[in-house]
Structures are given as C-alpha cells and as structure tokens.
Amino acid sequence: MNKHHVLKGTVAALVATAALAGASGMAYAADGKQAADLAVHGGAQRIENITIGNTQAKNVILFIGDGMGDSEITVARDYLHGANGTFDGLDRIGQPSAYGDTTVGTGQYTTFSLGAGIEDKNDPAVTPVTDSAASGSAWATGTKTYNNALDVDVYGTPQMNLTELAKAAGKATGNVTTSEIQDATPAAQMSHSTLRSCYGPQGKTDGSSNNAADQCEVAQLKENGGIGSISEQMLDTRADVTIGGGAKYLHQTVQGGEYAGMTVWDQAKAMGYETVEKDVDALNALQYDGKPVLALMADGNLQTQFAPSVATKKDPAKDENPIQCSTNPDWLGNKNANGNSASLADMTSKAIDLLEANPNGQSNGFFLQVEGASIDKQDHNANACGQIGETDDLDKAISAALDKVDLNETLIIVTADHAHTSQIVEEQPNYALSTVLESPVDGAKITVAYGTSPDQMYANDDAPKFDEVESSMSHTGTQLRIAASGPGAQRVNGLTDQTDNFYTIAKALGLASTADDYKNLSSGMDYAVNVKDGKVSLDVTGLNGDASFSYAVTDAATGQVVAQSADGDPVSGERVRTMQTTSVDLTDKVMEGKTYKVTVTGRQTGVALDKEIQIPAQTTSEVIPGKPTGGNAQAAGDAAASGTPLSTTGAAVAGVVALMAALVSTGLAIRMIKSRRSGSAEQR
Length: 684
What we know:
By secondary structure, this protein is an alpha/beta fold.
C-alpha cells in the first residue's frame, strides 16, 4: 500500500471520529452503558460507526497470547532480547514500515465481562476482570457474556462465531493452540456452551469415568436433546485444520445422538477427519487431501519451551544468584530423531500450508486463530521462565506466518484475552512472591513479582509437575495491547473493546455480522426425508445463520406430534453443521405410507419452514423433499428461490400455492432419487 492510501484511510477514520464527536456536541468524555445494554449483540462496541478505506482482506490470522498483558510482553522481551531489544514477530505487527509500506494499527482494548458465572446469567452485571471464556467469546461473536461461558449471551443463547461465519462465506478455517483444544480460547471458535468445563460427552475425564452432570449444563448433553459437549461440537463445526492438545478427552464415549456408543475419536474418523494423535512425524507429513485435519499432540496441554522456575518469598540470596531459564527436554519444539518438531511456529506453518492448499482457501481465503496458551497458565503458577518461553513461542509463530503470507491481502492481528499478574519491580517485595532473573543478552537483573496471591506456590519450594496448574495467581482487568498489519489494520487504533475485534475481522473478510445478515444466511434453509438401509432421517441444509434448530414432526391426519426436539433450554435442540447437512434420526418414529407435517425452526434467527412429507416404502436410497403446507413454508420457498430473508409470519405466495395444488391434484409425486447429501461421512 502506498502512502497516499494510508493517508486516505487515516483521513476517513478521522472524519468518522469527528462525525461521532459532532453527534454528541464534541464531548470526548462519556459514561458507559448499563449491563443490560452491553449484553446485546454488538452492544459493547466502542467504534461501531467508524469505517475506513481498504478494509477488505482475503485472509485473517488472529494471534492470541493468553494472559499476555503489557507486563508479560515486557518481561519476555527484557529477558530474551534485552531491554532495548525487539521481538521479530510480536513487535513488528502494527509497526509502520516494518514490512514495507503496509497498513498498520496499534491500540488498546477493554476486556470486562458481564457476570461471574452461570448462576448470574439472568442478572447481568459488569465484571471488571474477565476469564478466558468470556473474553474469547467477545471477539469470536461480538457479544459480551459471563465468565465461564462460551459463545452464548448472558441468557445462555448461542451466538454465531467467526469460524461458523467464515465457513458460511466459503472460506477455509483453522484453529491452533498449545492448550487442550477444548480449553476456552480455542473452544470459542468451535462451540457454544454455558459452562467452559463441558469438554466431552463424559465431562472432563479421560473416558474412564463420567462427571458430565457436574461439568456441563444437563440440558446441553446430547442424550438429553442438547447441542452437545465442546468436543462433539468441534466435530460438527468442522474447521478445516484443528491442531492442539486434549487428546485424552476424545477417548470419552458418545452418550447420545447419531454416534452414541463410539469414542469421540472414532466419531471423528467416521465423519471423515484426517486424525493425528500425539505423533510429531505424522503432523509434519500431513498434506491436504480433501479431509479436515484433527491433530492433537498431547493428552492435555502441550509442554512449555522452558523448564519451570519457582517464585518464592523475599530472600537476599536470590539477588546474589539470579537464574537463567533452561529448555524443557519434553518441549515438542525440540527436533526428534527424524528432524521433526511441533512448536507453535511449526503448527502455525503447517496450518497455513493446509489452508492455502484447500480449494476454499485458494479461491476465497481463510480465517485462522492461533493461541499461545500457556503464557496464562504459567503466570497462574508464578512461573516466570514458563511464561517467557511461551511468549517466545508465540513470537516465532508470528514470524513464521509473516514468512508465508502477503500483507497486501492478509490481515494479521496480535493481542491477548486478558491481563495477568506478573510485574517487573525494582526489588524483591515483602508482600509478594518473586523470581530474580538475569538476561543472557544484556546481563540485566530482572525481578518479576507475583502479587495476586499471598501463598507459596508449591510445597517445600518443589517445582510443579508440568500438568499441575495451581491457578493461585489471578487475572487483572487492565486494558490490553492490540496491533495489526494488513488490510483493515487501522480499525484497531486508539481505544476499542474486545467485541470490536469481531467486527474488525468480519468487515475485513466480508462476513455476516448482524441479525439481519444471519437471517439472510438461513433464508435458504430446506430439508428432506432420507430413507436408506432401514433408517429414516430428516436432513436439514442451509441454516447457516443459526447455531441450532428445533423441529417437530406431526401426523397430518391426527395432529399428534410423533417426534420433536427438546426445546426447554437455549442449549437444547439440534446443533447446526454450517454449510453441511444436519441429520435427525426419525427411525421408529414415522411409518411407511403416512403423511407428516414437519416444521424446522432456526433457534437464533427464527427462520422457519413447514412441509408435508409422505414416508415411502423402504428403498435403497430415496429422498422425499415434501411440499410446503402454507404459512412459513410458502415464505421459505419464496426465500429459497429469491435469496431474500424468510419472514416468520409466513405471508402466502398465491402463485406458488396454486402451482403446488395443481401438481398434487394431478397426482404427480415429487421424488428426488439422488440424495441431497452424498451419504459419505466426510460431509456430515
């Protein structure tokens, strides 16, 4: 981008800002909204009416340093590169002219949530300190929510996320993390859960026990007619590339629905995933072959780059003997015997290769989220070396991405989800735990203090086992750095909110982002009955603006409801598989030769469709699309043909009704022998 274009975009931003100021009498100070107003979709935006030129990007890569506040960045930079040093990736994003004359932006954003947990969801209140689930949901959906919630609003209603919306726009999608893939930040791109702990159909276990009743809202579980656990929804969301940890949770057994009785791993294979479990060589060997990739590289979180350090109480001996960090021998970034490794940079590079080889990625581009997760986890542990190594790992992942993409068509955003506890202080404090480091670059003595818990972290000063997360140290509510390079980067300038990040990405990629947009995405909803191999299913397509739907099947002659979804809770119903066919089993609920009225309703948009469907005799494979029965169905048929939003009032369309009546009266049977879905597991 040349300087003229940069200036033009800046002027546009200033004009928009001036317009906003003018509307309020040039008053630059303003009181914030109340919680109920902040809770609506987009309600917390700070720059809702600001637009700038050159915002269209083919690709977006969002890098998240979990818990990476300004202090964590400074601690890592001072130690690794010296106080006057620079990160190769982390500090280059948002830096003018660092990678040519490209559009850049740097600012701060606010991170508050709207409640402390599920018990507060019907009475939202501003909560100054967010957790990773509420913050991840904010940029994933544009909607503020309560701590512990994933992609639902404060009332528990699922909200569309960036991965679903990117898929609906025909883009390739990816999700990479060093944490368990079910953990809050990656889960916010693939699931809707009222509790972040609902890892799998058996809760948060390795499959040898079941604590789902404690870890999940009961109504969300598949066996109770819900949309399913995080792991099950991950498969339904079907990102093209998913890489992280959490392999052990996929050994749980599915409790309800189409894949009941299988392990989640087996379900993934049945759905056509290319799977890798804890195999660095297999990850490195992956090539795009038309299948989505699910590669989980550890049972839990991935090992950190540096071995742990232990923060202790004030001790003069620490000043006399400052420590230096050492490499963790179990870090996957170490080369194995075959010369392969799986650092965050390696995983990011592989994800980009796979996404760019995907036909959707080649033609329409991609959306990729990459998380350096254990900056946060080791900050909780007051583990200075651990958090430094993880910041370095993220920095190298950003550099790896910059080596592969063109910033003229790719927007890269680097930020965090919340601030954390570590501080560089002048000397060991009396009131807090601390670690004294010596930079191997400039020899500076760096005292890092942890002051949000008074307790000694580990008994007898022993270093923790790696997978122990004590979580004694807590998050803080400080605003965070956000930096961007590429088309649309200037939108992060100044003070924004996490929810603004959703709109920045959606605008850059041309994604749906409003309620009307979502209705448009679902206006082409259709369904048919599939009869195959003794089974009858209701196959729903086109509900791409909804996260879930409800259905009811009524005997047309008697009016008796013979099958319906569970609808008593916002996370009840059927999980929509965006841009795919979502199947509901009707076997043993309907009878051959009988006619039924079927109603399907998108639970977020309210888009609805009614049809009458006659169940035929069993055949090898036959799809019965049915005929509209009036009201919503007529509007839906019109919407599907014209691409207009479906009206839930269902205004009649006389010409369509007359044509359908004529077809029925002449005895013409509507049959579509070729299935609307290929039947292959790969498209489920």
